[in-house]
Specification:
- This protein is mostly beta strands.
- It has one helix at 11-17, and strands at 22-26, 32-35, 38-41, 50-56, 59-64, 67-77, 82-91, 114-115.
- The longest helix has 7 residues, at 11-17.
- It has a 5-stranded antiparallel β-sheet with strand order 1-4-5-6-7, with no helix packed on it. It has a 3-stranded antiparallel β-sheet with strand order 2-3-8, with no helix packed on it.
- The protein starts with 10 loop residues before the first helix and ends in a 27-residue tail after the last strand.
- Helices cover 5% and strands 35% of the residues.
- It has one domain.
Length: 142
């Protein structure tokens, strides 16, 4: 049996070394985050909390305090440093889960990733005020 060789790194050092694929995000009140126009579920028990999104290979992993919260399949464009697609969510039971159960529990098969396409910003040309037309025109006679 072979032994693994390597060096231990602190969490801060690992974050620095992999920072090109780490995205800190803050969850909304429902436990969802937005990344590159994709809006998706992470953990309902962590409302308005900063979590880390790690892209590793074709996996997008959401973590908080070194605990895996959720994992999604994704396509990542390394040149543009942008996620191209997110799908197939897997959620893990954690100590952060809300004590109050959901009215309708979310399962991996029911996970929904919402994509909001970016629209190019249109240049707004300020319009000049419309010229008021005269109701009557005074004309000098004679």
């Amino acid at each position: 049996m072979a032994q693994a060789k390597g060096r231990p790194y602190s969490p801060d050092e690992l974050a620095r070394r992999f920072s090109h694929a780490v995205f800190p995000r803050t969850t909304n009140r429902y436990g969802c985050v937005t990344l590159h126009s994709y809006h998706f579920y992470v953990e309902e028990g962590l409302p308005k909390t900063q979590v880390l999104l790690w892209v590793y290979g074709e996996q997008l992993r959401a973590t908080f305090e070194n605990v895996m919260l959720a994992e999604y399949h994704c396509r990542y464009d390394g040149q543009r440093q942008e996620v191209r697609d997110i799908s197939e969510g897997v959620f893990y039971r954690t100590r952060f889960a809300s004590l109050q159960e959901s009215l309708i529990p979310l399962t991996p098969q029911e996970s929904l990733v919402v994509y909001h396409p970016r629209h190019p910003r249109r240049r707004v040309v300020p319009s000049s005020p419309a010229r008021q037309l005269w109701l009557f025109e005074l004309v000098q006679t004679g």
